[in-house]
Amino acid sequence: IEDNIKEEDIQNIILFNNMSNSGSYYLEQLLDGHRNILCLPYSETLENVYVNRMQYLEGDELLIEMMAQMLGYLHSEFEELYCVGQHRFQGYCVNQEGHFIKDIYIDPTIFIQQLKLQLGDNRKLKSYAHMLKVYFAAYNNCLGKKKEKNTEYWIFYHMHLPNYDPSTMYAHLNADEFKRVENLIIIREPVQHCYSWIRRFVMKEKNNAAVKKEAFSHIINSELGIMLEKKKGFENVKAIKFEDLKSKPEETLKSLCRWIDIPYMDSLKSTTVNGIEIYFPALTPDGMKYITGNDQTPVACVRFTEAMTLWDETRLNMIFSSFKKAYGYENSIPEFLEFSREQLKDILKRDFKFATLVEELICEKGAEDERYNVNEWIKKLFMEYIESHQKEKEYYPCILPED
Question: pTM (2 decimals)?
Answer without folding.
Answer: 0.92
